[in-house]
Please model this.
Amino acid sequence: MLIQDPGAGPEIMVAAASWAHTRMVPLGTAGVQAQTDNLAEQLTAARGTVEARR
Model:
């Protein structure tokens, strides 16, 4: 997963790495939904951090 945002900080990259790792782990439907929800929360938090720095 490549982030094409020049203002993306390490938080975005950590979330992307976390997403890539979870995609390699076979999970049931509930596990996939939990990981998706977790990723959405991480990206939202990271985006807020990046915006706060600007």
In short: The chain has a mean pLDDT of 69.
